[in-house]
Fold:
Amino acid sequence: GPPLAMEIALPLLKDVPSSVLVGELKSALESYQPGADEEGRPAYLTVAMEQAFSRMTHRSRTHLPFLSLFRSRVMMDILTHITGEQAYKSVLGEELGYGATRTLLRTARAGGFLEPVTPSVYQIHPSLPWFLGRSLYRQFPQSAIQQMEQEVVRVYADTADYFMETLYENQDAGTTAILAEEGNITQALALSLEAGQWENAQLLVQPLAQVFRMQKRYPELRRLRRQLLETTGATAEEAEESGGIQLWLYLMGTEASECIETKEFDRADVLNQQLLEYLANKEDGDTDPRTAAVFHQMGQVAQNRWQLEEAHDLYTQSLAIIEGGEDQEPIADDYYGLGMVCQYRRRYTEAKEWFSKALDIHQRIDDAEEMVKDYRSLGLCSQYKFEYDEAASWYQRAREILEEARDEENAVLVYHSLGTVCHAQYQFDEAENWYQQALSVSDRMGNHSQMGIEFHHLGLVEQARDMFVGDAEHWYMMAIQQWQEIGDRRSEGDECRQLGVLFHEQKELDKAEEWYGQARDIFEELQDLNRICRTYGQLGMVAEERDDIPGALLWAGRTYQLAESNNLQVLAQVKAHLARLKEKHGDDNFAAWWREFADEDPPTDLDVDPETVL
Structure:
């Protein structure tokens, strides 16, 4: 028979001679009539289980079927938490204390029904719940079984709530615990939905959803969410009717947040609008913290779309509802969002004020992960203000937290930022050391994208030293290799253009033109207009340095047309370049050339403020 049947049959040989046991099993197998629900299940396994189960004590035969309500594994602490309660006694006839529960599990292990994982955790074979469930239904009526199911829901809802706290305090330990109990949490969730226990359902789904989201298991998370919405109702009206409106709000709100992470902004808009419509029609909806959460998420969408005025207004609307309330974390989120808007507007002093307010809250509630975000943002704003010592100080604070938490993924980003601070101050040796440290960790983690960034910046350091062009070329080529490995064409194009700049600075115009040409091909393929314009402009510069004014005019003219028709930032530089070429070519010659090139009169607005040319 199957291995599990052997594991269950062999312990019986301690009390029954092998010839007798084989005879009993054969006889039972010949007379066994499988039910309709046993298709694909080996009859020999069921017969072996029945033989073993029938030889157990009355107490074991009474209590062991309760394990059919568990999936994959059972923890003795959780089982004891249930078996020691009055609700369990009212169905099973007696409570089981710690010692009796331990004896029950050890007896099941000795009989081959369970496998030990640790002294207090046992693995349940997938074939076992069906067999024990059949015994459970033979012993007790449906109402009694439902009572026990609700005990499982109650205890696992409490456990899920505890897991969420653990997840915030120790992410690794919390994740391990949740994944280990995933089968039982899912089982309890299904039972809670069946009973319409919406509050418990939300408690149970939260740790699963959080871990799925942290591990980027979005397809599983969305499948779980769809299954839940089929029960609550897909719309607010249906959820109100079923009684699951609070769970519906949670599911819709978390999906909207997730869509912002995955940059599905149109989907986030739809979800946020549904939430806002429901909340706006409720009494006190305009002061409900959940309304503030929706405004915040809408602000994040606007910020990602670079609609900065709208983002500022939405964060402010959110803050107006919750500022002064007891829950400080969402207030800090709004402060941080307002800081990001100011940073994007280059209002760095104001941005630092918002980030500092967010940091003050995160320090009070001791949220290390958010403190790191605040430190990094404060460091970046200080860097943009050329306050390099202060920037380094913020980054060092972030580094200390990350290294203590062994968070290498984020530590790499801080090492890189410390490198850029040194780089900006021409401290090339220190910059190189930080970039190398970031590269080493990225290599160990297999983070090819970050490796490409570090190779690029190591190339910039060598290029700035202007001593060994070959070293800079080497680093840029290493970066290209990383971009090609991960299929990042845009970054590959940037690296080609940087190689063009390197050789352009060395007056090796043929090499520069070759690399600019490769960059141009990639950017045209991607239809990245900003990058196309800048590369055309650099090709025009190469032609100009060769005294090929018609060639330079051709590249500059094409750049002007693209930039002017698409209102690109590079337009000021293009006008300055065309003005210089016009002066070299002569006004009349330039006018004639332009009419032939563009079939229109030449531009008359080429005079630009030199300060606007970057």
In short: The mean pLDDT is 91.
